[in-house]
Amino acid sequence: MTFEIFLLTGVLLGGLSLISFLSALIDGRRPWVAALVLVIAAGLIFLAARRRPGGLVWQDFPDAVWTFLAAILN
User: Which range has the worst mean pLDDT, 20-24, 56-60, 69-73?
Assistant: First the structure.
């Protein structure tokens, strides 16, 4: 698996977990699942950074999106 898959999955899970975290806090519930998913998302982003030669920079994200979409569509 390439680093693009790990990066995009981590970013997507991170965004969803933040929404879930805020929803749980507003409803007065404990955000256990959201916190767990946020830790998993952080681990995926860390794994993507470790697999990318030279590390990750912000400019890699748009290239990763287009590379991932091209791999799916082809």
Answer: 56-60
- Domain of 61 in residue numbering reads as 3-73
Using CA atoms, how far residue 70 sits from 2, 4, 62, in Å, is 13, 11, 12
> What is the pTM (predicted TM-score) of this model?
0.80
| Pick from 11, 14, 1: nearest CA to 62 | 11
Number of domains in the chain: 1
Estimate the crossing angle of helix 60-73 against helix 3-27, to 10 degrees.
110
Tokens of 10: 């981590």
Model confidence pLDDT, tens digit, residues 25-49: 999 999 999 999 999 999 999 998 8
Instruction: List, in order, residues 6 or more apart from 35 with CB less than 8 Å away.
Output: 17, 21
- Residue 4 corresponds to which tokens in the numbers above? 């693009």
